[in-house]
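quick one before i forget lol
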Amino acid sequence: MNKARTNIRLLWLTIGTLLIALTGISGRNAYGQLPTGTIMGVVRDSSDALIPGANVVARNTDTGQTRTTVTGVQGSYRLPALPVGQYEVRVEHSGFQSALQSGLTLTVSLEAVLNFTLQVGRVEETVSVTAEAPLVNTTSGSLGGLVSEERVAELPLEGRSFMGLTLLQPGITQHRNA
């Protein structure tokens, strides 16, 4: 009888250990950095009033994939977890000219803020902005950067260590004990 209880306890201990191990393995993958970014902003009219219910469409010009959302009661929108690449964003609302912002390069972990001002007019008219404005991260205080594949290949990295790439980012310094 004692041997049967010991075997059952051992079985449950093994099952419990496996479940904990599997949970830990799958949980680690969920928190990894994904190759995605976010586009967000606010839609207003020419009098600076917020426009709720405007349709916002982000189109990846590399792949043709689109993601659509509608602005909330505060006129804000957010398109999270977009694959990295080149994007154009179109905003439309009845009674207003649609607006198009193109030339946006979305990189890993970037939170691009694109605010739109819609002009009153016919729906057939579109205001298009094609100049690429430099994006400033106004949503968090974290520092981050992206080193291109070409730059990595051309740099003389000591021992080909990725840690040397961190020193290429603005605001990063190395402290050594003398």
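fyi The longest strand covers residues 36-45.
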